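re: that complex we talked abt at group meeting.

here r the seqs, copy pasted straight from the sheet so there may be weird spacing, ignore it
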Amino acid sequence: MELLTTNNVWMMICTALVFFMHLGFSLLEIGLTRQKNTINILFKNIFIITVGLLLYCVVGFNLMYPGDFNGFLGFAGFGLDAPLTAEGTLDLAYNTGYTYWTDFLFQGMFAATAATIVSGAVAERVKIVPFMIFTVIYVGLVYPIAGSWKWGGGFLDQLGFYDFAGSTLVHSVGGWAAVVAVWLLGPRIGKFKEGKPQAIPGHNLPLATAGVLILWLGWFGFNGGSVLSADPELTSLTLVTTCLAAAAGGVVAMIVSAIKYKNLDLTMFLNGILGGLVGITAGADQMSPTDAILIGSIAGALIVFAVSFVDRIKLDDPVGAIAVHLICGIWGTLAVGIFGNLAGFDQFISQLIGVGSYAVFCVVSAFIIIYVLKKTMGIRVSEKEELEGLDGFEHGMDAYPDFRLNEH
Amino acid sequence: MKKIEAIIRKSKYRIVRDALHEVGVNFFSYWDVTGIGNEKEGHVYRGVSYSTSDIQRRYLSIVVNDNFEEVTIQAILKAAGTGEVGDGKIFVSDIKEGYRIRTGAKGGDTLN
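got the structure back, here u go
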């Protein structure tokens, strides 16, 4: 009982930390985009966390954790259904690490993250209502079904696929949808001139920096809570590997971008930290500190090349979501088969199968949703609206009404 | 009355302000401006290099009585210069009349 209390308190703290990540995502996104679209981005982020939680309560939780099921798709019914004892109190035998309520809320905080990743990639040009519809379907159905394959005990779990806290289940699931969305949406006006990528600098790097540090803090809960108990060894090791990978990712991204571009670019430094965090997430409890530093370092280097690769294939991703969440998510997932306690050929193959399964499922479902939205209601704002800013047209508001010097 | 408009480096603003106070020019307006010029600044953002010809300067608008024209100009010339390209410009023009809104009075006294 006392152990459960301790475990449960830790899990609730982690739940709060994961919640806090939504502030981090919001600040990062508005920091790396232009001021004329700030309200629109904040609106999307607030929509995602509020509606995401409600959806997870109504359908998501029971889709993701259906109990015994065929391994591909199961559903335990609408709403929450807490297990009760004969006396009518909450049945604490549910799990030794947390109560039913904690389980729901912790997982619910994760669910919204996948759509938040997409939000950053499509920023500054997506129509708000179709994006909201996409969010509802993706967070309500796609994410939980995908999650059930591993965390719900589905076929990938049976296969030995390992994803500790969601390099694939959360980050790549969001990342694949981001690729599809960005591709169907097209680049922002002015992003490519005669085929060459142009810089569209973000309007507030202090906010972007705060966002990244908040995300890093939130990751203590994201990975630390994924131990699913307050196990002293595993939680502390997980926090160590998480932080070392973040630090290594940042430093390496900073160095590589300095060598490649002869410039100390803060945004690459920030993306490198996030790349390291996403990279370590799949195996945070299985790595030694050295492994963590290596995984983070490779993620940091990948970020720099991935950002320019995404530019080269003419995808416009204002915040680097594809590089951070998809590329580093895939890397982190595969790294479980290369580094740490689980390393081995068979594990690597399992990881590959996992990455491939999610790629197919997420790309296909995101494509269907977004393509249908594109053909029916359109997913892109008008040219005039994009040039003058989404804030004024979609929301009739200005993020900084007393402070407006330039046309952005 | 003359209007003296000066476009100066932001970094020189405090020195120019103090120099103006020293010669007895205590009232003026200023604002930050962006202009286009020969100077090009190179930037790199997320691996994309770009250059901009936008130049940030401070714009001073000073209205003085005729006998202050020369000292004001000299004060700015001395205080705002670095010798490098980009130190800025001074423009002088005639002002027909000035009014003080509170009293409705007009003429040179309204400048104090």
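couple things i noticed - Chain B touches chain A through ten residues (CB under 8 Å). Chain B has one domain: 2-111.
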